[in-house]
TrEMBL record:
<dbReference type="InterPro" id="IPR050109">
    <property type="entry name" value="HTH-type_TetR-like_transc_reg"/>
</dbReference>
<protein>
    <submittedName>
        <fullName>TetR/AcrR family transcriptional regulator</fullName>
    </submittedName>
</protein>
<dbReference type="GO" id="GO:0003700">
    <property type="term" value="F:DNA-binding transcription factor activity"/>
</dbReference>
<feature type="domain" description="HTH tetR-type">
    <location>
        <begin position="10"/>
        <end position="70"/>
    </location>
</feature>
<keyword id="KW-0805">Transcription regulation</keyword>
<dbReference type="InterPro" id="IPR009057">
    <property type="entry name" value="Homeodomain-like_sf"/>
</dbReference>
<dbReference type="Pfam" id="PF21351">
    <property type="entry name" value="TetR_C_41"/>
</dbReference>
<keyword id="KW-0804">Transcription</keyword>
<dbReference type="InterPro" id="IPR049484">
    <property type="entry name" value="Rv0078-like_C"/>
</dbReference>
<dbReference type="GO" id="GO:0000976">
    <property type="term" value="F:transcription cis-regulatory region binding"/>
</dbReference>
<feature type="DNA-binding region" description="H-T-H motif">
    <location>
        <begin position="33"/>
        <end position="52"/>
    </location>
</feature>
<dbReference type="Pfam" id="PF00440">
    <property type="entry name" value="TetR_N"/>
</dbReference>
<keyword id="KW-0238">DNA-binding</keyword>
<dbReference type="InterPro" id="IPR001647">
    <property type="entry name" value="HTH_TetR"/>
</dbReference>
Amino acid sequence: MRRTQEDRSNSTRSALMAAARELFAARGYQAVPADEIVRAAGVTRGALYHHYRDKQGLFRAVVESLEMEIMTEIEAAFDAAPDPVSGMMSALDVFLTACLRDDVRQISLTDGPAVLGWTVWRELEAHYGLGVLMRTLEQAIADGLIVAQPVRALAQLVLSAVTEAARMIAAAEDPAATRSDVQQVLGLWFAGLLAGNRAE
């Protein structure tokens, strides 16, 4: 059975993504030339230009793929929890654990802001995280679990704090210890949002 053009294109993109992700994770964006990626993927340099324009375009696609992968894991953890507050804590645990992975630390958290620029990187973080956070917080407020407050502002601040925690883990000499510290601090902050903890 002959493969269609779409099948060949999908196969080429998958090969480039897989090769780039492995090489970027191992050595970092700057240390990996485009020629090495296309050789590892078994495709031509022209294929890279056709599908991703250039190495930076491929890098952005890898970053977005990682973001979607992590967000899927986060949403699964949240959905499995008995209530929105427990879901937030489970989702935080999954996210911070992902930040310990070599590919996430190097590609998303270290090279991401440097290669894509801080503004674009923040936009990607918001694109994949802000909507989920807003839905989670809206549900928690509707259920009376969190003190009513402006949801978008709260979600943006929570996202900023969690994003900074991720960058702290990526830059740390002891990522596991830093992960433990930021989880404790963020957990206490999130607990302070609970309606039952409101000062009378």
